[in-house]
Structures are given as C-alpha cells and as structure tokens.
Amino acid sequence: NSLLQIRNLKVNVEEKNILKGINLDIKPGETHVIMGPNGAGKSTLGYSIMGNPRYEVVEGDISLEGEDITKDTTDKRAKKGIFLSFQNPLEVAGISLGSFIKNAIHEKTQKPIKLFAMRKELKKNMELLNMEENYADRDLNVGFSGGEKKKAEILQMLMLNPKLAILDETDSGLDIDAVRTVSNGIKEFQNKEDSALLIITHSTKILESLHVDYTHILVDGKIVYTGDASLVDEVNENGFERFLTA
Ligand code: ADP
Ligand code: MG
Ligand code: MG
To answer: What are the pLDDT digits (tens) for 39-79?
Structure first.
C-alpha cells in the first residue's frame, strides 16, 4: 500500500549523474524528511519526482499508487496528486494568487468549482497562515517577500490537497514568526486524511513542532542512512560529519 515508490533511481542533469540509485517508499499519511549537505541532490530528487524535463531518469522508476509515472509529464503528475513547493517560487504577473489557485483546482478536478465553498476554504487557510485577505487578489508572488512567497506555496498546498506534497527548503530565509506560521500550515496538511509529506531541508527549525516518521540522509546522490525523528536532533547537534565518511 505504498503511495510513492522509488526504485534504484538514477538521474542525470546536463549529462552529469547526480542521483545514484535512490530507493524510497512513502505510505499514505507518512511524513518523511530528507536532509543532507548542499549539492547532495535533494532538490534534484524533488524535481525528478515532479517530472521536470531537465532531470533525465537514466535508470530505475517512480510509481504512485502502484502505477509507473516515470515517463509522465509534470502536469499529469500534478493531476494524479503530487505537489512540489519550490525553493524559489516564480513571480507571475497578470494572474492573481486567488485565480491561480482556482485554475489549479479546476485543472486537477476537471469539475466546475463551487465558488462559495472555495472562497470560504481560502479565507480559512489564509487566516491560519496570517495572510492579509487582499493577498488573494495580488499578482502571484509579484512583490511578495520571501516569507509571503512561502506562505503562498503552503496556501496552494492546502487548497489543492495533494496526496503527496514535497516541500523543498520551505523554511529557508524565514524569520522565527514566519517559520511558526508555515509550520502551522504544514501541520494542518498533516491532519488531512492520508496526506503524505516529503520535507527537504538542511535546517531543522521547521521540524521542531512537526510529526516526523522517517528521516533520510542524502549524500552524493545516495540515501546513506534512514532513521526516525530523533535523527533530526542528532544532525542538528553533530551535522552530517559521521555520514560523510560512511
Ligand atoms: P541540493 O538540493 O542537495 O543542495 P541539488 O539537487 O540542487 O542539491 O544539486 C545537486 C547537484 O546537481 C549540484 O552539483 C548541482 O550543481 C547540480 N544541478 C542541480 N540542478 C541543476 C541544473 N538545473 N543545472 C545544472 N546543474 C544542476
Ligand atoms: Mg536544494
Ligand atoms: Mg496525514
């Protein structure tokens, strides 16, 4: 009953081998954390799961609910329920955050949107994220601060309700208050039935108040160690040193 299953995944970026045989199983409802030094391939893993065409799968496969998605487009994967929050979200002029979310929900469900219910849900989630109501009417990410962009990503995640959300460095560059707010948003997502999370991070601030099932250490394109939530604290104290020599 795996949600996401990755088998011996090898990925090249511009002809260079970055991921060197990743195995990963995520079940519905689980939260997995990927930690590792800079350049280890964490973001590459996120983009590969999402199907970014710049990331070439040269071996292995990725499946979602038992269905091979290795060759699916990003669009198709999004419709099947995978969401990726970017390290550096794009700024899109001419489309508001609110319509962006509405379009994304429509794309995914292919059904007419219940506008009133959506507005209500949007308002509730924006309150949870301490976002001013008028943010929904502003152009997507244009002129947003780093923290506001991250909150907008979490808002999209909550509204789209994917089966698997991948959060790449969602806490980078956030002040303490913004980390707490974003963390509350992630917690809200964890409370949804069967929602699974893959949290990529090299810091641990955001994890302090979140439930974590598994922590994986990624070094040089390979998962070299898997542990439970306590591994987060250990990395926090001692860094990645002991995993680099393994
Ligand atoms: P991490 O997220 O763990 O810091 P990345 O996945 O971003 O690591 O990068 C892993 C390696 O792949 C690095 O050597 C990086 O330079 C390279 N890489 C990743 N994405 C690209 C890209 N789009 N173009 C060129 N090189 C890339
Ligand atoms: Mg990265
Ligand atoms: Mg859950």
So the answer is: 999 999 999 999 999 999 999 999 999 999 999 999 999 99
Q: Which of 4, 10, 117, 132 is nearest to 60 (CA)?
A: 10
- pLDDT tier, 17 (very low <50, low <70, confident <90, very high otherwise): very high
In 3-state terms, what secondary structure has residue 196?
A: strand
Choosing from 10, 11, 13 the residue with most ligand 1 atoms within 8 A of its CB, the one to mutate for a pocket test is: 13
| Closest C-alpha among 170, 22, 227, 176 to residue 238 | 227
For the CA of 37, the closest atom of ligand 1 is: 3
Locate the domains of the chain by residue range: 4-244
4-244 belongs to which homologous superfamily?
A: P-loop containing nucleotide triphosphate hydrolases (3.40.50.300)
Give the distance (Å) from ligand 1 centre to CA of residue 202. 14
For ligand 3, the distance from its centroid to the CA atom of residue 192, given in whole angstroms, is 5
